[in-house]
Amino acid sequence: MDSLPSIAPSLEAAMGQGYHANARLVLGSLLDDITPDEISGCVEAAYADNFDTPAVTPVTPMGADWLLELHHGPTSAFKDIALQMLPQLMRVAREGTDERVMIVCATSGDTGKAALAGFADVAGCGVTVFYPAGKVSDIQRLQMVTQPGANVNVCAVEGTFDDCQTAVKRTFADTALAMRLAKDGVVLSSANSINVGRLVPQVTYYLDAYAQLSRRGTVTLGDPVDFFVPTGNFGDVLAGYYAKRMGLPVGRLVVASNSNDVLYDFISTGTYDRRRPFVKTISPSMDILVSSNLERLLFYLSDGDCELVASLMSDLDEKGSYTVPPSILERLHETFSAGRATDEQTAEAIRSTWEGDHVLLDPHTAVAKHVLDGDDGEAPRVCLSTASPFKFSADVLRALGEDAPADGFACMDALAGLSGLTPPSGLSSLRDAEVRFSDVVATDGLEAYVESACARTFA
Ligand SMILES: *Cc1c(COP(=O)(O)O)cnc(C)c1O
């Protein structure tokens, strides 16, 4: 996808369409080796029954602003939008081959479960997920280790998410391993947000949110809309940039960081420096110091200057930092700005939004809400809501000034009682689910785990 196609001629029609039609429009524009019938089949399979609202990603009022709810899928986080679709796209791409694919992914908490849910029992596929031991929420861990399916594998890693991601990349680069697996007709594939099959489905909800605002009379086609995006690996917000490059009237894309504020510093100064302490926050899915998707943004900002991008990436590898030329920083600032929130500010945003607007936010969404509250933009403002608050019940309870019981389900009950809201069934049903996985490996143990997972899965 060296250049992005324009959807401008279809925008007027898109304003009157629902999510499925807009998904067909976006996928059809970006994926040119798949037929309209195949696309319809994929959209139907991914979004018809698996989301708990027909709108798929409803836009709802939050005070004078808007919340784009991306957590209505089976795992209650926005990663479902992409990871319900990715297995469908892979199914179509693999039709007629008998190659077997092991999806391997590193997760900071939400991607893993979404990948497991998307790929469980998909014919010809296996899925192996690595998460940082002790660095995901109780509920996130249970979601993963109770995943049913004959082709799923889940393992904890002694290290941070960045360690997991680095070790997974090393596994992909292990040619000896690849050759051994190839003998059995097995290939490894990534489900991390660097996979373009994950980015493409996410472009849809920017378009669809704009269409919803248009139908509500909040915007007239052509008016800018600003999006506030809680950011970790830069996949979600990059999809917004794709939408803009494709012709959607996106105003600003505001990147919201937690205390791992490497992106905030980058957007403010043009220098990306991962040499800093890793902070464990109450928004763990954003506890990331190396944002893999930034490389793609640099590619587009430099009009495809591969040489420049490669030299920046090698600086990052060798020195732990890079600085973009002033011309690139200027282009970056045409669309992007940044803000950040500490855990205290995040908790305060949860409390004030609940008390002021009667909207209950999860800690990731609240990072973006804090940034939105400190912003004085004129355009309609949309805050992306990336997870259900019940996925992080303990921290949400504490933010509301309540005591959090030690048990994750007691927290969920307390939050339900306090808010009058019902937890998503995929979370409350974990209570009785059987734990299937308890493996833990060191960071140099991933290759061996993947090899044994392939043997188990494709035996
Ligand atoms: C993954 C995730 C994010 C960050 O998204 P990126 O695409 O990595 O920037 C934010 N919130 C939640 C709940 C997530 O799971």
Any overview of this molecule?
There is one protein chain. The chain is globular, with a radius of gyration of 21 Å. Strand 3, helix 6 and strand 4 form a beta-alpha-beta unit. It has a six-stranded mixed beta sheet with strand order 1-2-12-7-8-11, with helices on both faces. A five-stranded parallel beta sheet has the order 6-3-4-5-13, sandwiched between helices. With 459 residues, the protein is an alpha/beta fold. Bound molecules: pyridoxal-5'-phosphate. The site of pyridoxal-5'-phosphate has 16 residues, from helix 11.
Summarize the structure.
The chain is α/β, with parallel strands linked by helices and 459 residues long. The chain has helices spanning 11-15, 19-30, 36-47, 79-83, 86-94, 110-119, 138-145, 161-173, 175-183, 196-215, 235-245, 262-269, 294-301, 306-319, 326-335, 343-357, 363-373, 393-399, 408-419, 425-428, 446-457; strands at 59-62, 65-69, 100-106, 125-132, 152-157, 186-190, 225-230, 250-257, 271-273, 321-323, 336-340, 381-385, 440-441. The strands form three sheets. It has a six-stranded mixed sheet, sandwiched between helices.
